[in-house]
Design the sequence.
């Protein structure tokens, strides 16, 4: 059975003396009647697909709409030139997130995590961490399991679809998953992991989904970078011992309720927000002419 | 929902519904046709029509019709590949009633002359539903091996088919019956837990009252 509370995963983890990621893995294997080895091989493939997508970023590509492409290269050049405002790790998170978002818009192969629109957040955080901190492949795979477990609870108790819960459900969920995973990699205990997730979601509650022309481009691509950085900030706070005053499962329930309260015009219907700005409408008119 | 629906699937972007789902609809249609597609009339509806261009929905559908899966890096090149293979493609707008906002009607002719008309819907995530086959209602997801039996509407056919499957140890996950009119043309859609072997398909085809059988297998060609 899919978990309904993160506290439940943490509890089983403590009772059995297993790390949270292992509890998530074992539960899923029972559910799907596959072995832990089969599951592990699959997760390994997911990680390779993420890395492959990151490596194959092509700055020359422009999306079919003409709105997206090339920004990841700008960030890379800015980082390489040593002009970055922030440290190496965050610089890399921003770069990889934008690149992956663009690759998605340009019809490259990516890993939806939890959705295609939010595909840049988790790989940006995990791959950057692996490159900068030299951790093993196994650790990163474990972190991915934990991220998946967090996502499962979010899907169960809130939502991971923009049309259902606004962008808090997509970029917000991805960021929350990444923050828990990163806290684990940093050696945080279960409590720290739960705090990171709670802090992260709280910072993205209520985010709307109003992309231009209904395409996964504006504001989606750049929002991946913000999601990634938010995940890092949350893990940083949690590792410093900062706690969320509201426990994580109550935060997730709030996210679910807020998702329902976001009017449907701001849930991927293109009826409000950025989608109906003058610039967006001019763009749509141009597109319709080309149909 | 399992954890690989959360971290996954591996797919070609940009949209799970408008790209990955569209590839899958094309793929299932090609499999149901049972041979390579020579000619395809692709009629888009709703949001597939309105935002399909920016989402690469047309490339995705053609890729699926060529037998590609949602993670195939050649999806954006599907038009060129289809042209090289001599596949004829035309696009238009579908007039559908009460259809899901992400729908497409496909009219296919195979290289061996087989014909198929289906309506596919992309229902969220990369999940799909095939809602019509050859004009008749059907509802299946392409997640299971699926048997579609066209027959005359007479008592006992459903029992005959299911007992034949039971005899081969094939478990039926879902069974639906649709008919045009009482005693007329009817369709039985069976989603199975196991693959249906070729000899069972042949036996079914030879049964009296059964007009034709289509089968969607999860196995690679
Ligand atoms: S704005 Fe909407 S489409 Fe874009 S990433 Fe967020 S939820 Fe997805």
Sequence:
């Amino acid at each position: 059975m899919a978990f309904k509370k993160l506290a439940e995963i943490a509890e089983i983890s403590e009772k059995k003396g297993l790390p949270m990621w292992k509890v998530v893995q074992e539960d899923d294997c029972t559910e799907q009647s596959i072995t832990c080895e089969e599951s592990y091989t699959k997760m390994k493939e997911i990680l390779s697909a993420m890395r492959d997508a990151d490596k194959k970023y092509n700055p020359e590509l422009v999306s079919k709409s003409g709105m997206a492409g090339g920004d990841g290269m700008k960030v890379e050049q800015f980082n390489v030139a040593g002009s970055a405002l922030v440290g190496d790790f965050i610089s890399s998170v921003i770069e990889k997130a934008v690149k992956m978002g663009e690759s998605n818009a340009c019809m490259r192969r990516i890993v939806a995590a939890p959705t295609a629109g939010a595909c840049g957040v988790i790989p940006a955080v995990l791959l950057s961490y692996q490159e900068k901190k030299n951790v093993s492949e196994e650790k990163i795979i474990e972190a991915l399991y934990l991220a998946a477990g967090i996502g499962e609870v979010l899907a169960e108790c809130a939502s991971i679809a923009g049309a259902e819960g606004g962008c808090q459900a997509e970029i917000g969920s991805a960021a929350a998953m990444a923050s828990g995973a990163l806290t684990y990699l940093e050696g945080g205990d279960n409590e720290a992991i739960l705090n990171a997730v709670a802090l992260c979601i709280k910072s993205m509650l209520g985010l709307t989904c109003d992309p231009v022309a209904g395409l996964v481009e504006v504001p989606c691509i750049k929002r991946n970078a913000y999601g990634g950085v938010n995940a890092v900030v949350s893990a940083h706070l949690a590792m410093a011992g900062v706690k969320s005053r509201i426990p994580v499962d109550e935060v997730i329930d709030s996210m679910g309720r807020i998702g329902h309260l976001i009017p449907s015009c701001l849930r991927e219907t293109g009826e409000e927000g950025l989608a109906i700005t003058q610039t967006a409408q001019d763009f749509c008119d141009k597109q319709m002419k080309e149909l | 929902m399992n954890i690989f629906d959360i971290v996954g699937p591996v797919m070609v972007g940009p949209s799970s519904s408008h790209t990955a789902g569209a590839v899958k609809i094309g793929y299932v249609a090609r499999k149901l046709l049972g041979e390579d597609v020579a000619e395809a009339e692709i009629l888009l509806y709703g949001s597939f029509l309105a935002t399909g261009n920016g989402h690469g929905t047309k490339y995705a559908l053609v890729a699926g019709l060529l037998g590609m899966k949602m993670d195939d890096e050649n999806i954006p090149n599907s038009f060129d590949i289809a042209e090289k293979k001599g596949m004829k493609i035309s696009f238009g707008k579908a007039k559908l009633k009460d259809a899901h906002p992400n729908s497409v009607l496909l009219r296919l002719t195979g290289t061996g002359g087989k014909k198929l008309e289906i309506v596919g819907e992309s229902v969220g995530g990369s999940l799909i539903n095939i809602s019509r086959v050859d004009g008749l209602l059907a509802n299946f997801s392409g997640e299971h091996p699926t048997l579609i039996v066209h027959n005359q509407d007479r008592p006992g056919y459903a029992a005959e088919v299911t007992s034949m499957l039971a005899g081969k140890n094939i478990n039926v996950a879902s069974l639906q019956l649709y008919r045009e009119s009482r005693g007329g043309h009817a369709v039985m859609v069976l989603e199975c837990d196991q693959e249906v072997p070729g000899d069972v398909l042949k036996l079914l085809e030879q049964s009296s009252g059964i007009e034709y059988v289509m089968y969607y297998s999860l196995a690679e060609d």
Remarks:
- The longest helix of chain A spans residues 137-157.
